[in-house]
Amino acid sequence: MRRTVVHAPPKPVTVAYKASASEESVSISEFVQRRCPSLARDFVPAWWLFNGHLQTLYSVLGDFTKTDNVIYQRTYLRLQDGGTLGLDFTGPDDTQCEADAPMIVVLHGLTGGSYESYVRAILAPACSPLSEQGLGYRAVVVNFRGCAGVPLTSPQLYSAGHTDDIRQALFYISQRYPTAPLVGVGFSLGANVMTRYVAEEGELSRLRSLCILGCPWDLQANTDKLTSTYLGHHVYSKGMGRNLVNLLRRHVDTLSTYSDRGVAEAAAATMNMVRPTIEAFDSHFTRIAGGSSPPWPFATAGDYYAYASSHKVLGNVQIPFLAINSVDDPVVREIPVGSERSGWVTIAVTPQGGHLGWFEANDKWFEVKRWIRTPVMEWLKATAEDLICVTPSWRPLYTDKDGYIREVNGNAGLGCKEVEGGGIIVGAEPQRDVLAGL
Question: What kind of fold does domain 5-218+318-426 have according to CATH?
Answer without folding.
Answer: Rossmann fold (3.40.50)
